[in-house]
Amino acid sequence: MDKLAEELKNPFKHVRNWIKGEIFNLNSLVQAIGEKESCESRKQNSIKRIAADRDTNNKLSEGKFTLKTMFKSKNDKAKTQAILLARIAQSERDVENWDKIKRFLIVYLAEVAIPDFKASRQQKYIKAM
Fold this sequence. Notes:
By secondary structure, the chain is mainly α. Helix content is 88%, strand content 0%. The protein has one domain (11-128). Helix 2 packs antiparallel against helix 3. The chain is elongated and about 90 Å long. The two termini are 30 Å apart. The model has no long low-confidence stretch (mean pLDDT 86).
């Protein structure tokens, strides 16, 4: 009788671990979908950065007052303008790239990740029954 009690295992531990794994898998899928949605907000942030940098660049080229360049010489202002122009060009490329990344994520999630997830869950549920 004692040997039989030692050999028995608690089935609720296995069920708990299985449910935990399922929750982790679902959370990872939800996070992937959330990252796809956050591409749009990142794109909007890049657009805002472009507008702010262009505004600062226009002020510098027209010789208007800015707090960042109040104590800078003309050479430093020219360097700041060059940095702003490089940042504007990079941000414009970022806007294009965020669109591409979002399209790739949409295709990947729709054609690969979600169908694979559904198929593997179905196989595991059938196997468990």
